[in-house]
Amino acid sequence: MNNSEIIRNKILKLIDEGTLKISSYKAGDIIYREGEVCSSLGYILKGKINISTISEEESEETISVINEGGFFGHFLMFQDKKKYLGDINVSVSSKIVFISKTLLLNLLTNDKEFLEAYLSIITNESFLVKQQVKLLSHKKSIDRVIYYLKTNSINNHIEIKSITLLSKKVNLPRETVSRMISKLIKENKLIKKGYMYYIAI
Questions:
Q1: Distance from C-alpha of 200 to C-alpha of 184, rounded to nearest angstrom
Q2: Tens-digit pLDDT profile for residues 127-185
Q3: Torsion angle of C-alpha atoms 96, 119, 112, 15, degrees rounded to 10
Q4: Angle, alpha carbons 171-172-176 (nearest 5°)
Q5: What is the rounded radius of gyration, in angstroms, for the C-alpha atoms of the chain?
């Protein structure tokens, strides 16, 4: 079993034992508002949520999207400031389990398998956040695009199905990303074969 399966099975067992309860939400529900205190760890048993905030221009901006099997609130529970940075919105019909800090600490202390799986998941998430910070630290568009391609490739190969999606990943205008990709192909630094690209840098 992988770490996600270990966590899910442990949680399902606690539900069967009556230790945890399932909370059901419909699309459009708001679980928490921005600024509310995080008092428990949320686990998405089924469904999807997104965390969003309102910008200074009063437009909604998505901070993150969390799918089935994901956690939310886990980075806040042990901080001094435990307030959510955005609204927790339900994207589709969802079933969520809330784990108290006391129960989480008990599981981490007494269940080695749960501890290792949980730590692996949150450290991987933390690494991805650091990668995103490093990505956005590149001021030049071409450096940012190259960094993303390199860090997300396997054996120098990466699949790019949509320039629009790629532009969102690197937080740059679609036109800019399209121009950068064309430039890399022209310079033979990127070799295209269908949706697959070989990075020759």
A1: 9
A2: 777 888 788 888 899 999 998 999 889 888 998 888 988 898 888 999 999 999 999 99
A3: 0
A4: 160
A5: 20
